[in-house]
Specification:
heterodimer, A: about 190 residues, two-stranded antiparallel ribbon, B: alpha/beta, 21-stranded mixed sheet, about 15% strand, transcription (chain A), Auxin-responsive protein (chain A)
Chain lengths: ~190, ~575
């Protein structure tokens, strides 16, 4: 191949076989603009949360500097990432246990550390404070009476259970997330299901 | 010359060819003349297909009718980092089905990054009467049911290696499917299995296989079971321990220590999840004969690591977490003069601040002390051009150099300059460099260095680097031996790709994701290059629903004799001669 290809600011490769567009025309390739119609960013991998902070480089179309948790970066295999975490057996020895809490009608979720509480009364009180509502009286037969809310949790099998039915330790080891149900769905759970 | 070829009987030529093992040499032999082509193809026993879509099974079987060993690779390397969406491809079943008919005497199957199903494993188990070796590296799609079929039916199995594969719904009972009469096992690697295996079945299997050399256990094997297993297999050469943690008790300690001392042939150790440091001295007696140590799952801090590596004077390969720190790497440099390969993995890859004192200095120390070092994978958070230049000068025999500075686009932390000169020194001094991974702040200049100097480079990985198409052009134009190029998040577009289209046929594959290659350019390439598959991978929907100038999400280009494949999922489109018509 010719050694005389010169380039200073730009590739000067008009002699090469392939280019877009008809011969004799120069095509200015503006790529980012025409993708504006599309809802997604043209370069979705970059996970830019900060509203378009530009990269240091001057080149157009350079993605903004990515923050942590860019897909596939740093380049570590998933089995390696997984094994850096504690195995399930020692979850009991871990000092924190954060679970997500959602409430029907609330705009966003919260997170609480279950290890902070000694038992159900403390946990329920904390939930009442966090979401500004009241939970009724718990009874084994009828669930939570006296309020339109029922605290529920998703267990390891993916089932939604009423909070309070099982011993506290068992609840701690099987609770994956909490949901405060409201209205008729909640009442359904309380009635001898 | 021709007369000589005719005068040698076929059997003699075949015998001569049987000493030639490398594919490159065998391919050369088969090009000498037609009769050599014929003789060679009938006696080729091993085939390697680096991209399962480059050729189809019937082509392979037609040319090589008497194969005993097959090695296949499927997904592109970046699939390891979740950049290839699930369902992209890499299904091995069609190959196995074809080979079940054509190669009844097949003995070995090695697969990497392929989708293997239980159905596939069952077919293997019943089709090949003399089946001996199954290696599934980074594969997925199968469960322990498939393994049970292999165990039950492959009476002459020597090697079962599941390295880093994802196995569904693991249950431990598949091991019991090896019949009591089965004693031929030489190598077993189940380190990737998530759940327990049946311990007594494992112990019984180990005990009745006198040729067992390699045993890699999974995390679920507790420390107190290890001693029993070791005592049943004192001839082991390679051991992967399970969880290396238990309450510190003198009786348990002496049991383990005794078991290790009984293994006089041990050369390689791995595993060691959740290490309790108090149990480490149990392996001190065998350290001096270790050549390979993989502690990349072991949460051992640097003082204990220093004590350990200082006793491993024969060490040739070390994989370790960055807990080793600069101080541990200095010890490595001082004591392990035979070291050839070092891999340092990050213990907290997503932490914004460093959690350990591991810097560029650690790698510099090793390059100074270990003159045989030729293969490096190093994760760190800071680097300088000076350090890279020093490393390059110390290790002119480097063949694989992969540096990952965790934060993208990090400059030299002292001069704040790009790391172009540092990597430039690497490619300039290390003339045998075959594999290179770049990171840090890099301009087009680093690619100019690479194109100019890296003449033996076969694989290059690039991320968050470069300024313009000039960078890509330097590499495609200059790297004569380039086979695999993988790029993500770089401002490379159409120009360099189109200008170097012919180069792509000399390579195995090119991956580009989150770059600026337009759909129009992909179509053009597809039209002009019939022997390439141009795969556009885009989860936003059909590329023709967007303007032609819009960049594609991901692009995978590979040479092939098999034409476009037929097993593509909905988010993959192949650009071929008709694509311009179909998409307009």
């Amino acid at each position: 191949m010719e050694g005389v290809v010169t380039y200073e600011n730009d590739l000067n490769l008009k002699a090469t076989e392939l280019r877009l567009g008809l011969p004799g025309t120069e095509r200015n390739q503006e790529q980012a603009v025409s993708c504006a119609r599309n809802n997604k960013r043209p370069l979705p991998e970059t996970g830019d949360q900060n509203g378009g902070a530009k990269a240091k480089s001057d080149a157009p179309n350079t993605p903004p500097a990515p923050k942590a948790h860019t897909v596939g970066w740093p380049p570590i295999r998933s089995y390696r990432k997984n094994s850096l975490q504690q195995p399930k057996q020692t979850a009991a020895e871990s000092s924190v246990m954060y679970v997500k809490v959602s409430m029907d009608g609330a705009p966003y979720l919260r997170k609480i550390d279950l290890k902070v509480y000694q038992g159900y009364p403390e946990l329920l009180k904390a939930l009442e404070n966090m979401f500004k509502f009241t939970i009724g009286e718990y009874s084994e037969r009828e669930g939570y009476k006296g309020s339109e809310y029922a605290p529920t949790y998703e267990d390891k099998d993916g089932d939604w259970m009423l909070v309070g039915d099982v011993p506290w330790e068992m609840f701690m080891s099987s609770c994956k997330r909490l949901r405060i149900m409201k209205g008729s769905e909640a009442r359904g759970l309380g009635c001898g299901v | 010359m021709l007369r000589m070829a005719r005068s040698l009987p076929e059997e003699v030529l075949e015998h001569v060819f049987s000493f030639i093992h490398s594919d490159k040499d065998r391919n050369a032999i088969s090009m000498v003349c037609k009769s050599w082509y014929e003789i060679e193809r009938w006696c080729r026993r091993r085939i390697f297909v680096g991209n399962c879509y480059a050729v189809n099974p019937s082509m392979v079987i037609r040319r090589f009718p008497e194969v005993r060993s097959v090695e296949l690779k499927g997904k592109p390397h970046f699939a390891d980092f979740n950049l290839v969406p699930d369902g992209w491809g890499g299904y091995v079943y069609p190959w196995i089905a074809a080979m079940a008919n054509a190669y009844p005497w097949l003995e070995e199957i090695s697969l990497k990054r392929m989708v293997v199903t239980d159905e596939t494993l069952e077919l293997i188990a019943k089709s090949f009467k003399n089946f001996k070796v199954l290696v599934l590296s980074s594969c997925e799609g199968f469960s322990t049911d498939g393994l049970a079929a292999i165990a039950a039916n492959c009476r002459n199995l020597r090697q079962l290696d599941l390295r880093e594969s994802e196995v569904d719904d693991p249950s431990g009972h598949w091991l019991s499917h090896f019949p009591d009469s089965f004693t031929s096992l030489v190598s077993l690697n189940i380190s990737c299995l998530g759940s327990e295996v049946n311990f007594s079945a494992l112990e019984h299997l180990v005990g009745r296989c006198p040729n067992l050399r390699t045993l890699r256990l999974n995390r679920a094997v507790p420390l107190d079971r290890l001693a029993n297993i070791l005592r049943r297999a004192p001839q082991l050469v390679e051991l992967g321990a399970g969880t290396y943690s238990a309450e510190l008790r003198p009786d348990v300690f002496s049991s383990i220590a005794g078991a290790f001392s009984g293994c006089k042939e041990l050369k390689s150790l791995s595993g060691f999840w959740d290490v309790v440091p108090g149990y480490l001295p149990a392996i001190y007696p065998i350290c001096s004969s270790l050549t390979s140590l993989n502690l990349s799952y072991a949460t051992i801090q640097s003082p204990d690591l220093v004590k350990l590596v200082s006793q491993c004077q024969s060490l040739q390969r070390l994989w370790v977490l960055d807990y080793i720190e600069d101080i541990g790497l200095e010890a490595l440099a001082a004591f392990c003069k035979d070291l050839q390969e070092l891999r340092v993995f990050p213990s907290e890859p997503f932490a914004l601040e460093p959690n350990v004192s591991l810097t560029e200095q650690g790698l510099v120390s090793v390059s100074e002390g270990c003159l045989k070092l030729h293969s490096v994978l190093y994760f760190c958070r800071q680097m300088t051009n000076d350090a890279l230049v020093t490393i390059a000068r110390n290790c002119p025999k480097m063949t694989r150099f992969r540096l990952c500075i965790i934060e993208p686009r990090t400059p030299d932390y002292i001069t704040l300059q790009p790391l172009d000169d540092g990597f430039g020194a690497i490619v300039e001094h290390c003339k045998d460099l075959r594999r290179l991974s770049l990171s840090g702040l890099l301009t087009d200049r680093v690619f100019e260095y690479i194109g100019t100097h890296a003449k033996k480079l076969e694989m290059l990985s690039v991320a968050f680097a470069g300024d313009s198409d000039l960078g890509l052009h330097h590499v495609l134009y200059g790297c004569e031996n380039l086979r695999k190029l993988e790029i993500r998040d770089c401002p490379f577009g159409d120009k360099a790709l189109l200008a170097n289209a012919a180069k792509l046929e000399t390579m195995r594959s090119l991956w580009m994701s989150s770059c600026s290659v337009s759909f129009g350019a992909c179509k053009l390439l597809g039209q002009k290059m019939p022997r390439l598959n141009i795969e556009v991978i885009d989860e936003r929907g059909p590329p023709d629903s967007r303007p032609e100038s819009c960049p594609v999400e991901k692009l995978y280009i590979y040479r092939t004799l098999a034409g476009p494949r037929f097993d593509m999922p909905g988010f993959v489109w192949t650009m071929d001669e008709d694509s311009a018509l179909r998409f307009s």
